[in-house]
Amino acid sequence: MAGSESSAKRARIPQRGPQPPRFIVIEGPLRVGKTTLARLLAERLHARRIYDCEDNPFLADFYAGLPGAAFRTQMCFLMERQKRIREGLSGDAPGLVVSDFLMEKDRIFANLSLDDEELKLYERYYEAVTVELPQPDLVIYLQAKPEVLLGRIAKKKAHEERQISTEYVQEVARAYEHFFFRYEGADLLVIETSEIDFVEKNEDLQQLLRRLQEPVKGTQYFLPLGGSD
Fold it and tell me: In terms of residue numbers, what domain contains 73?
């Protein structure tokens, strides 16, 4: 994960102040619930939404292990994600913004998927297109056990995800844990979602909304007290 180290060095130290976050990012491994939570928060908080790229034309070939597909997949994600962040944050006063993804996630997957030579070339493009991108004020990092993620992948039944291996899901979950263990680019709220359902359990969502009315300083953890709608 050499790339993420230089990213951490460049990331700004969050400003500690009374101002509520204006740029919130939801992040975590595949099928952890990022898109669902981002949608719910954007609706409840009346925020502008930045959507992650879910129509990468090279993704199915990558999951199938075809030669060269990893680099094509990663470059497509890189260019599309930085474009979406720029467009989503454009304007003098965009108001509250909720994003489905953190830009650095691209680097997490690049370090997992690319060989050394591909990674060197990727890094050159990454540095060039992300150097002036704003950092979020708050990142909500969603965790879940690999077996839970695998169950959600199976339930989703996405065509391009049918060939995802158990080992790959475990590797991605470990990479996220490693990255966020040292993350200092913004205030960080960590949520273990294996037993949480923000859709079916309204009280879980309500507790999170109440938590977000309070400041998050540094790295903190959120665990609903329980209960159901």
Answer: 21-222
**DSSP-derived secondary structure for 125-194:** HHHHHHTTPPPPSEEEEEE--HHHHHHHHHHHT-GGGTT--HHHHHHHHHHHHHHHHS--SSEEEEEE-T
Give CA–CA dist 229/226, Å, rounded: 10
| Tokens coding 168 | 């790959």
Taking the C-alpha atoms of residue 59 and residue 81, their distance in angstroms, rounded to an integer, is 15
pLDDT at 27: 97
pTM: 0.86
Query: What sign does the CA torsion over 181, 186, 187, 190 have?
Result: negative
Task: Assess if residue 11 is contained within a domain.
Answer: no
Q: What is the pLDDT of residue 18?
A: 60
